[in-house]
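Below is how a single chain appears once it has passed through the pipeline. First comes the sequence as given, then the structure the pipeline wrote out for it. We keep one example in the README because the format questions we get most often are answered faster by looking than by reading.
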Amino acid sequence: MYIVKAEADQVEKIVDMSISAFETDVNVGGGKGECPPEFDSVEWHKQMARDGHLYQAMIGKDLVGAAIIFPDETKNSVYIGRIFIDSIYHRKGYGIRLMECIEKDFPCAAEFNLDTPCWNERTKAFYKRLGYRIIKVEDGFIFYQKRKSDPDTIQNFT
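Resulting structure:
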């Protein structure tokens, strides 16, 4: 798997994947309609692509998912706004591979940050497995961080 900045002609397909991926959250504790803001908006995803924040996850020539990524100006810190894998690829290791690609594609980053809803049991276990640590819980969200300097996570950055 590899990631590249999203191509404009892929945005609608990416939005379809976003919808199918996030609508499965009702299976892991979410209520119907509890999805991220703009998860189903083609225009918002187009804006993310224009701004250079939308990445598509590829296996060969196949689009399997996407990520919204916000590196700071120095690329020393990266905020992962969201990731999603097409629901037909769920529970097959693609999410782990996508996160590994993100970490690998930002080699200067000393830390990666993200958040997830408190109710989402799937993502809590997922981020813990990847070496992310909880840094705070606030307003119904768990905020995670992974630092290169953390001895438990160094192997995941190589």
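The chain has a mean pLDDT of 87.

See the next section for the split statistics.
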